[in-house]
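Sample pair:
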Amino acid sequence: MSVRQIILDTETTGIDPEAGHNIIEIGCVEMVRRRLTGNTWHQYIKPDREVEAEAIEVHGITNEFLADKPRFAELAGDFLEFVRGAELIIHNAAFDIGFLNTELARNGITERVDEICTVTDTLMLARKKYPGQRNSLDALCRRYGIDNSHRELHGALLDSEILADVYLALTGGQTSLQLGQGGSEDGEGEEPIRRIDTRALNLAVLRASDDECVRHEAFLDLLDKKSDGAVWRALQ
């Protein structure tokens, strides 16, 4: 897996790219080694058709607002270079990838997003982890206690930022384990682990009392009853 991940979302004029609907917003948030870098790619796009009223109710992006925005063809190259080689993290990835690839083909661009990136679908991850439950972005925010109160309407960049938190929680919550500071992606330039010679520190050794040993053995007896056996005793 690439250490560079791009959390991505789109907003569109409607739900079907094959019916001629267009992408009107792309929002990307960069993460390296499970840490947000602050690097984003965000663009509103002028479509070839009007935004449907039902779609405006979802994201609030109007035809008037998009009138002076660039066309997809004008920014496609910049977008592809931003995501190239990364792992894309997308909620319901089939929808966004389908739209992106259709827009690329429609504008005579031969590259496809899923050919230059790997794709991870957080909706699929959530369905495997929570089968039979609601796994929308809002539902996952409630499940993991992620604040999305500022999300009155859908927005590609905002939803990407929220999805970044959801993805980290969904895949374990641990964002990073760094032993050095300021290293490069391949580990070059990171501070080496320094071993400390404890012989010169004159550290006191505190041994367990007889009473503490008795209570420790009683606790291990309880572990034996509650599990397949205390690992501590297996290691003794």
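Residues 122 and 128 are 10 Å apart (CA to CA).
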